Amino acid sequence: MTNQDPQELLKQKHELDEHKRQFTNFARSVSGQGEVEAGQEFSHDRQDDDQNRMKSVENKRA
User: Fold this and answer.
1) Are 31 and 44 in contact (CB under 8 A)?
2) What range defines the domain where residue 3 resides?
3) How many distinct structural domains can be found in the chain?
4) Most-buried pick from 22, 27, 36, 54 (CB within 10 A)?
5) Residue pLDDT, tens place only, 7-58
6) CA-closest candidate to residue 16, choices 4, 28, 24, 27
7) Residue 6 lies in a domain
8) Other residues' Cβ atoms within 10 Å of the Cβ of residue 10
9) Which pTM value belongs to this model?
């Protein structure tokens, strides 16, 4: 198993999350205003909170 830099892994994860967010927005724009699954009503306008994200990173290191 190779040792990978945690910062590099975090950067890759954020890039993947951004890609998923863009795809989700695209899919929603193509599908129009159809019904959404329960619990998904407000997820399209949610932005990651930097403080919570950094706390999560901090907790994973502990």
Assistant:
1) no
2) 1-29
3) 1
4) 36
5) 999 999 999 999 999 999 998 888 876 665 555 555 555 556 676 777 777 7
6) 24
7) yes
8) 14
9) 0.44
Cα(62)–Cα(58) distance, rounded to whole angstroms?
A: 7
Rounded Cα gap, residues 26 and 47, in angstroms: 17
Question: Which residue is it, tokens 């890609």?
Answer: 19
Among 56, 51, 46, which residue's Cα sits nearest to residue 24? 46
Query: Is residue 14 included in any domain, yes or no?
Result: yes
- Residue 36 lies inside a defined structural domain of this protein: no
CA distances (Å), 48 to each of 2, 17, 54, in order? Answer: 30, 10, 10
Place of tokens 């930097």: 50
Count the residues in the chain: 62
